[in-house]
Amino acid sequence: MTTPLTLYDIPSTLPSKSWSPNIYKVRYVLNYKGLPHHTEWVEFPHIEGLYKRLGAEASDTKPDGVTPHYTLPLLHDHSTDALVSDSAAIARYLDKTYPETPSVIPKGTDALHYAFNEALLSHIQVTALRRLTLAKTNSIMNPVSEEYTRRMGEATLLEGQRLEDTDPKGEEREKEWAKLEEVFGKVDRWYGKGDRYVMGDVVSYADFTVSAWVIEEWKNVSRWHGGRWGALVKDLEKYETVL
Question: Which Gene3D superfamilies match (predicted)?
Answer without folding.
Answer: 1.20.1050.10, Glutaredoxin (3.40.30.10)
